[in-house]
Amino acid sequence: MTSKSTIIEPWLEEELENEDCALDGNYIYFLNADTIASSSSYGSVNVFKICYNENGEIGMKKGTVWKNIHSFENGESNLCTSITSYDQDIVSVGEDGRINLLTLSSESIVRTYDNADSCSIKCALFLKHNEILTSNLRGQLKIWDLQSRCEEPSSTFMLSGDIVAPTCLTSHPTHRHLVVAGDEEGSITIWDLRQNTYPVNMLRAHEESVMEIQFHPDYPDHLFSSSSSGEIWHWSVKPKLSADYVFDNLAGKDKNMVWFASDAFKNKLEVFTLMDKLHKPINTFDVNQARVLCGCDNEAIYLISGINLDKY
Amino acid sequence: METDINTILIPSKLCNRAGVSLAWKPCNDLGIFAYERKHSGAQDKPSQYYPTSEASVFHVRQDVILFRPILRKLINESNGTFLNLQELLARKSTNTQEEMLNFSRQYRSIIRACLESLQEDIARSKSEADKDELQNYITIFYSIECIWHLCEILFIDSTPGNVVLPHLLEWVRFHFPKYERNAAEMLCENQEELEMKPEYWPTIIGLMMQGRVRIARGLLKQHSAADTRAFLLVDQCLKAMPQFDVYSGLSASEFHLQWQHWVMDIQSKIDAKSFASHKNLELLMKIVVKDELAWSEIKKHFETWYELLPAWLFYAEPSVKSYELGTFAKYCIRQMGLENKLKHLDTVLLAAMEYDLLEVIKEIQKMSENGWFATHLANLLYHSGQLTVLEKDVDNFSAKALQEFLIVDYGTMLMGHKSLWQVGLSYLDHCSESGIHIIELLLPRVPVDNEYKAQKIIREAVKRELHHIAQFVCKVQGMKCVKRGRLGSALTWALKSQDSTLVSLLANRFLKDYAANGKLRNTDLLFNLGPTMLSSDRLIFLGKYYEFHKLYQDRQFQEAGKLLIKLLESKIIPKYFWYILLLETIPLLESEDIIFSSNDTYMIINFMEENQFDERIKDKLDVLRLATARNLSRAVLYESELN
Amino acid sequence: MFEAQEINAEHKDLIHDVAYDFYGQRMATCSSDQYVKVWDQNAEGKWILTSSWKAHSGSVWKVTWAHPEFGQVLATCSFDRTAAVWEEVVGETPGPSERGIRHWVRKTNLVDSRTSVTDVKFGPKSQGLQLATCSAEGIVRIYEAPDVMNLTQWTLQHEVPCKLPCSCISWNPSLSKNHPQMLAVGSDDANPINGGKVFIYEYSENSRRWIKLETLNSVLDPVHDIAFAPNLGRSFHILAVATKDVRIFNITPDNSDPSGVTKLDVQTVAQFDDHGCTVWRVCWNVIGTVLASSGDDGTVRMFKMNYVNSWKSVAIMKGDGSLAPNDGSKNLSNALTSISQTARYIKLGSIITPKEREASWH
Hints:
The structure holds 3 protein chains of 3 kinds.
Chain A (H helix, E strand, L loop, with lengths): L5 E7 L1 H5 L9 E5 L2 E5 L5 E8 L5 E9 L13 E7 L2 E6 L4 E5 L7 E3 L7 E8 L2 E6 L3 E6 L9 E4 L7 E6 L6 E6 L3 E6 L8 E4 L5 E6 L6 E6 L4 E6 L1 H12 L18 E5 L8 E7 L2 E6 L3 E6 L7
Antiparallel strand pairs in A: 1-24, 2-3, 3-4, 4-5, 6-7, 7-8, 8-9, 10-11, 11-12, 12-13, 14-15, 15-16, 16-17, 18-19, 19-20, 20-21, 22-23, 23-24
Chain B lengths: L6 E4 L2 H6 L1 E6 L3 E6 L20 E8 L6 H23 L5 H28 L3 H29 L8 H11 L2 H12 L10 H10 L3 H9 L7 H11 L12 H20 L7 H10 L3 H7 L6 H12 L8 H11 L8 H10 L3 H8 L7 H12 L15 H17 L5 H8 L6 H8 L8 H13 L3 H17 L3 H11 L2 H18 L5 H4 L10 H17 L3 H13 L8 H12 L8 H13 L10 H22 L1
Antiparallel strand pairs in B: 2-3, 3-4
Chain C lengths: L1 E10 L3 E6 L5 E6 L3 E7 L5 E8 L5 E6 L7 E6 L4 E8 L11 E9 L6 E6 L6 E7 L3 E7 L9 E7 L4 E6 L10 E6 L10 E7 L4 E7 L9 E4 L8 E6 L3 E9 L8 E10 L6 E6 L5 E6 L3 E7 L5 E9 L7 H13 L6 E2 L15
Antiparallel strand pairs in C: 1-26, 2-3, 3-4, 4-5, 6-7, 7-8, 8-9, 10-11, 11-12, 12-13, 14-15, 15-16, 16-17, 18-19, 19-20, 20-21, 22-23, 23-24, 24-25
Main location (chain C): other
GO cellular component, one term (chain C): Seh1-associated complex
Keywords (chain C): Cell cycle, Cell division, Lysosome, Mitosis, Nucleus, Protein transport, Repeat, Transport, WD repeat
C-alpha cells in the first residue's frame, strides 16, 4: 500500500549558494508562482523574481530588499527566522522578537512590532488577511490582529507545559482556523482556533524534531511531515472514513472532519514513508499534485513523484 | 625518513630570520608566526627586529578538495551508503559476500556518478585553470575507480576455485572501453569495406586482447574479403576456442588438454602458411598461439601493463588462479619495460595483485582526495573480514584500529566544515574507542551562527547523551542573548541549560529593572513559567511576584493579598526588593474590603519596624504606619465580631 | 595542497603568543611591544582587528582565552611581574548597522609575583574559573574567581614553590571525574645538577593542597614548553615536552595505594630530535591526534600517532624569505585585501612534492 516513489537525481543546492545564502537557517518562501522571498544572515529580506532568458535558462532577478529589518540592541544583525504572506502582504519575524509587516509594493516597512516577543520568534503564519499567528522559542503561540492599534497579541497560548519550541506551523488550506504545529520533540499538535486555544489533538509522530508540516493544497485529507532524522511521512485519512468525511465536508459539517476528531484519532489515519530514511535532517519540502520536492541537510534536493492521493 | 615528508614553505622573511612558533586554530588549522624564545630570566628589551612591520600570523590550512561543491555530492552520497552498511552490520552479526559486493558496487556507482559530473563540468568550464583543476580530479577519481574495482574483484567478489580471469577481463574492458565502443560504432554503421577505416585492425586486435572473440569475429565478417578461404578458416578456428568455465564441469587439466590441441591445430595451420595471404590475419593467429614476435609487435597497443596482463593470461594462462596474479603482473611489467617507471597507480594495483592489503591501504592514503577512499574501502574490507585475517601475520596490528584510525581522520576533517559537520559526526559515531570523546571535543566547537544551528547542535548532543554539551550550548546562547539585550530569550536558554546561577542572575536583572523603572518587562515570558520556575529561588520569587501583579490587575485583591503575605513570609526576597513588597501592601491595607487579618497586619508591622531606618522607606513610613494601624483596628473589630 | 592567509598583526615587535578562542573564530596576539590585540573573523573569513590596547608595562609573554561559558575573557602575563584578566564589554550605544563598540576591561591585576610571570593558563571548566600562573622566581600560583559572574574578585588559592625558575605550565584537560586535577610545570633552568625540569602536581581533595607527584628526571635540559593532550577516555595521560628535543610521555596514574597517594608510571614513548636544536613550543590539535612543535631551526614539525600506536613525523613547515613578496607587491596586495572583505588564501609552495603524494596532518 505504500505509495510508489521515484527519486529523481538529487542535486546540490549549488545555485542557491551562488546567490550568497548560507544554507543553515536561511529561509526561502514562495510568495506566488514566480516570486520568492528569502532571508539573509544580515537580518534582511530579499525578493527575487524568477525569469527565463531566451535560451530557456532560469535566472533570478533581484526585487525589493528590506535591509537590516531584524537586529539586536547591540547592533549585531540577526536572522529573520520565518516569512509568511497573504496576497501582497508579507510578514517577517526574527530572533530579535520583532514582527515586521511589509508589502510587496513598497520598500518601506508598513508596521513594526518592536518588542512583540521577549523571546526569539521561530514561526509565523497568516490566518486571515488581518491576523497572524506566531510561535516563540519558549513554546508560546500568539495571535496578532494586524488592524488593531494595540501592540499586544489578541491571545496567547502554550504548545505544552514544558519549554518545547514549535519548529513549524501550517494551517488547513480551506479551514484556516485549523492550525497544525510540529515541535522539537517530534510531536504534531492540532488546534481549532474557533473553539479555544487548547489543542484538539496531539500525535507523538517522529522520533526527532519535526522540520516541516504541510497539508496537500488540493487534497487536504493528506498531510505531510518531515523530521530531523531524515524521515518524510505522508499521513492520509483511511479510505473508508475518507468518503464519509469528504461527504460531510461538502455538506458543511466540517466539525466532523477527521483532523478534529478527538476519539481514536490516530486510528483514522494511515502513515506512509515516502522515501528510505535519509540520515540527515529534511529541512523543508513542498507538495504539488502527486509530487513532493524536499531539501535535506545532505545538500541534496529530492523529487518524489507518484504520491498516492486516491480519493474513494 | 624525511624524504617522504612534505616541507611546506611559509612566505615570510621574518619567519626565516627569527624563527617560528605556532598555535592550533580549532579545529584543523595552524597559526604560525615569527618568534624568538626568551629565557625566563632574561632582560626585557626589544628584539633585534624592532621596530618591524612584518609581525604577521599565517593561517595555514589544508586545501581540502572534497569541500568543492562538485565533490560534495560524493561526500554526502557515500555517507548514506556508509551509514546503511553500518546499520546492516549492527542488525546482524553475519554478512554475506553478496551484501558486501552490493555495497562495494554502490560505492563504485557513486564514484562513477562523480566522474560523470566532473566530465560534464569540464565541458562547460571556460577557463584553462578550471579545466586543469577538474582534469586533476578526474585523474584522481579515475584511479580510485580502477583500484576499487580491482579490490572488489580480488577481495570481495572471490569466486570458487580462485578463478579470476573472467573478472579481470571485465575490469580491463570497463577501464579501456574504446575497442568495444569502436566495434559497436562500426557494426552499427553497416558500411561496406570497413577495413578501410584506420581503426579496423587495431579494434579487432584490441577485442581479441580483451577476450571479446565473438565481436572480433563479427567485425571480421564485415571485411570485404570475408568469404575468402583465409577468413573462413580464421573464423572457424576462433569459433573452436575452448572456454574455461568453472561451472562447466570441466577440470582444469581437461581444459588444458583441449587448449593445447586447439593451439597445436592453429600452429600447424600457420606453419602451412594458410594465413600468409593476409598479414593481419596471420598476426592475429600468431597472437593466439603466443608467438613471441607477434606479441612484441602488438605491445604498442597497450597503454599499461595492467591492460596487457589479462590479455596475456587469456592466451597464456587461461586457468590462472588469483594467488598467482602477482607473479604474472611482474612479468607483464617487465615485458613493458616499466620496472623502474612505476607510477603510484601501478604500485597500488601491483600491491593488490600481490594480495598485500596493508600496502594498498598505505599507498591509497597518499592520494589527494583527503582520505575519502582509504576510509570507505578499509571499512568495507574490514567488515568483509579481509583485514582481520592480516592480524596473525603482522605484529601489533589491529584491523579494527586501522579502519577506525582512518575514520577518525576523515570524520574530524568533515567536522571542520560549516555544512558537513553532521556528516563528520556520523563517521565519528563508528569509532568505538575514541569516537565519542572526539565528538565531545568537536561538537561544542561547531560555530553557532543562529538559534536554528544551536538547536541542531543540541539535538546531535542529546542524541548521543552528551547532555553537558547540550547544556553548554544553551548556556552560551543565553550569555549571547544577555549581550544582545534579549533577556527573555536569555532566560529561556538559561532554563534549558539548567544552569541555576545564570537563571538567578537573569531573574535578578528583571527584578532590578522593575525596582528601577517600576515596569515589569517581558511579562509574556513570565506567563506560564510552569515547573521550570523551580530551577532557582530567584525565579520562583519573580514568578510569584508576577502572579501577584496579575491578580492585582484582575482586581482579585483577596488572593493578591494572600500571595503578598506569603511572599513577605518567605525567605527568598532579594535584599534590594523587600521595600517594594512593603510598599505594595499600602493600597491593599487601604482597600474597602478587609484583606489582611490582624495576624497578617502584625507581620507587616514587624517587618516595617525591623527596617524602619532604611533610607528607601523613610518618607513612606508615616503612610505605612497609618495604613497598618487603620487596617489593624478594622481587622481586630471584624475578627471579634466573628467570634 | 596547503594554503595560507597572512594577517599582519600590526605589532611593532615579535609576537610572543597567539591564542584562538574555543571556536577558532577569534584570535588574540601579544608581543614585546606590550600590546594585546584581538581579531575577529567576519562571515567572509577575513580577520578584522577589533581591539588593541597596551596591556602591560613589559613584554607580554602569553595570552589565553577562558572557556566561552564564562563569557569573552582573556588572561595575560608579562615581564612586568603581573598577570591580568580581561573581559570584553560591548558598548551601549550601537549604530543601526554597525556592531556595538567593544573594548576590553581589566578585571583584575594579579600582582603576587616578584619576578616576571612566564605563563598563564585557565583551568578545566569543570572546576569553575581557575587560573594558574608560574613565574621566574619558581612559584606556581592558583587563583579562583568564586563568582563567575564577577571577574573582579580573584582569590589566591594556592602557592606552590617549585624551587627552579618556571617557564611553562599545562593543566591536564581530562574530562573524567575519576581524575583529580593535575598540573605539569616546566623549568628552563640550565644546570643539569639541579635535576629534572618537569614537575607534575596533583590536587589532593583530602589535604586541599597541590602535591608534587613526580619529577621527570630524564629531562635535565631546560624546558621551554609543555602540553597535556586531550585525554579521549584513555587510562593514561599524554604529555609533550619541548626541551633540546621533542618528547612525548605516557603518564599512567595508579590510585591503588591504600594511603590515597597517586603513583605515576611515566614512560617516554617518543623522542624526536628532528629539529636538531632547542625546541620552543609544543602544541596539540583539538583532539590530541597531532602534535606540532617549533624550534631554533625555524621549522614547525608535526607528529602523529599511527594505527600501531607509534609516533611518526608527518609534515614540516618552514619560513622562506625568498618566497615572500617584495615590498612593492606586498603593499599592492594589502591594498587589494583591504578593499575586498573576503579572505585571501595563497597556495603554499613545498620542497618535495612527489606526484599524487601529500602529507595530511588531520
